[in-house]
């Protein structure tokens, strides 16, 4: 069955977050679900952002299948293609309750699918984003991102399980996790696999970012951010990784504009662009010449760490995609052993620093840095990633 939804133009695709799910990923989600929910046939399965119904085309999988979507043409096509599903055209983030989805209170419920994600605060494609999409959402589930609002909506309908795709950043970024507090208080991540956004043909033009095919179980104890940091994430075809295994640069530097924190005796020696995650670092500047609303002022004692970030940017394309939404990683002990190599390399490769500082070149600095990154990645993620620095 061809499940590619081709009726949306590019702008509508961005604003609705409508990137449709390859069958292999649908099968992956169901394999995770069936492994953990042996009595799946006793459940009603709901996809409240169903599109053409990719997640509802399974035969004899559940007691009942329900599909909803805001896109009238998508629902029309889904009804033509798939029998035995209760389809409805509606905005699933408005007046959220079981009654409006024609689901009884006593039905055991699994929410499934690939809900749209569209962060209105992101600078990516912001010139064509329609922020009014968020204005219509129920106030108690309204966030800056449609995907987060969908997660909160599953809590409102009290789904017993939630098996959906969403950016890994929803969990691993502390600010995002806080926005999901109502969901996190009632659900626990029990299984999941990280895949690349490049698994979706419509997103292959951009930078790859990690998507989690996640399974949550309703749990009165919920989950904390510490639980997420200690969770061992599976990566499709690539082993595992755990946030707690990495030290990050935020433990050593100021990421955001810090002018108001400086005192009269502080003498900044450089300016740096605001830091976000590794993928943002690939796009953004490091050292800058002028003052902006994004300026971080660098003091001399912290200069080596900012030089580290500058050098890290040069190596960022060799880092695995699944850490792209993490903060810049560092082994502080080993960094301090060769920090003069990072400073020298940064000064001699960054034109802004080259004009400001006079540091002697270190002949084997590049080799030592290569070995540092090889060991950093190899010790945490395996030799496969260490080979990127040979």
What's this, in brief?
Helices cover 33% and strands 17% of the residues.
Give me the number of helical elements.
16
Radius of gyration: 23 Å
Helix content: 25-40%
**Mean pLDDT, as a whole number?**
89
Overall tally of domains: 2
By CATH, the architecture of the largest domain is named 3-Layer(aba) Sandwich
How is the main sheet built? 9 strands, mixed
Amount of beta strand: 15-25%
Distance between the termini: 44 Å
Determine the structural class based on helices, strands and strand pairing.
alpha/beta
Q: How would you spell out the order of helices and strands?
A: HHEEHEEHHEHHHEEHEEEEHEEHEHHHHH
What name goes with the CATH superfamily of the largest domain? Vaccinia Virus protein VP39
Q: Briefly note the CATH topology name of the largest domain.
A: Rossmann fold
- Total strand count, please? 14
CATH class descriptor of the largest domain: Alpha Beta
Low-confidence stretches: 7-18, 121-131
What does this structure look like?
It is a single chain. The chain has two domains: 10-244, Vaccinia Virus protein VP39 (Rossmann fold); 247-389, no CATH class. It has 16 helices and 14 strands. The chain has helices at residues 10-16, 23-36, 72-81, 132-135, 146-156, 169-172, 174-179, 181-184, 225-230, 278-283, 303-315, 332-337, 339-349, 351-354, 365-381, 383-386; strands at 44-47, 64-69, 86-89, 109-113, 161-167, 187-196, 210-218, 233-235, 239-241, 247-248, 270-273, 287-288, 295-298, 329-330. The strands form three sheets. It has a nine-stranded mixed beta sheet, with helices on both faces. A three-stranded antiparallel beta sheet has the order 12-11-13. Strand 2, helix 3 (72-81) and strand 3 (86-89) form a beta-alpha-beta unit. The two termini are 44 Å apart.
């Amino acid at each position: 069955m061809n499940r590619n939804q081709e009726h949306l133009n590019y702008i509508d695709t961005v604003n609705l977050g409508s990137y449709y799910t390859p069958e292999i990923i649908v099968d992956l989600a169901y394999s995770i679900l069936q492994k953990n929910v042996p009595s799946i046939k006793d459940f009603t399965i709901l996809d409240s952002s169903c599109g053409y119904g990719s997640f509802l085309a399974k035969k004899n999988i559940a007691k009942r299948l329900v599909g909803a979507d805001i896109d009238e043409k998508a629902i029309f096509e889904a009804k033509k293609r798939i029998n035995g599903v209760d389809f409805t055209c509606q905005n699933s983030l408005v007046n959220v309750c079981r009654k409006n989805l024609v689901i009884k209170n006593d039905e055991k419920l699994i929410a499934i699918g690939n809900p749209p994600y569209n962060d209105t605060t992101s600078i990516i494609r912001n010139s064509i984003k329609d922020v009014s999409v968020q204005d219509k959402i129920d106030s108690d589930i309204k966030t800056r991102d449609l995907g987060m609002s969908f997660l909160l909506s599953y809590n409102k309908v009290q789904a017993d399980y939630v098996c959906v795709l969403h950016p890994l950043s929803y969990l691993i970024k502390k600010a995002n996790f806080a926005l999901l507090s109502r969901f996190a208080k009632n659900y626990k991540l029990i299984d999941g696999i990280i895949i690349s956004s490049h698994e979706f043909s419509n997103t292959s033009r951009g930078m790859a970012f990690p998507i989690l095919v996640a399974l949550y179980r309703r749990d009165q104890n919920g989950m904390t951010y510490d639980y997420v940091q200690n969770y061992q994430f599976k990566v499709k075809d690539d082993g595992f990784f755990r946030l707690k295994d990495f030290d990050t640069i935020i433990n050593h530097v100021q990421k955001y504009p810090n002018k108001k924190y400086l005192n009269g005796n502080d003498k900044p020696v450089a300016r740096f662009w605001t830091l976000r995650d590794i993928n943002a670092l690939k796009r953004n500047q490091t050292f800058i010449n002028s003052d902006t609303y994004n300026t971080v002022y660098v003091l001399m004692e912290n200069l080596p760490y900012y030089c580290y970030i500058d050098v890290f940017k040069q190596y960022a394309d060799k880092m695995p995609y699944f850490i792209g939404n993490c903060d810049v990683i560092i082994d502080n002990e080993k960094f301090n052993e060769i920090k003069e190599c990072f400073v020298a390399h940064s000064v001699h490769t960054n034109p802004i620093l080259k004009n400001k500082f006079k540091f002697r070149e270190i002949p084997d600095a590049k080799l030592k840095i290569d070995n540092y990154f090889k060991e950093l990645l190899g010790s945490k993620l395996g030799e496969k990633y260490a080979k990127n620095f040979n």
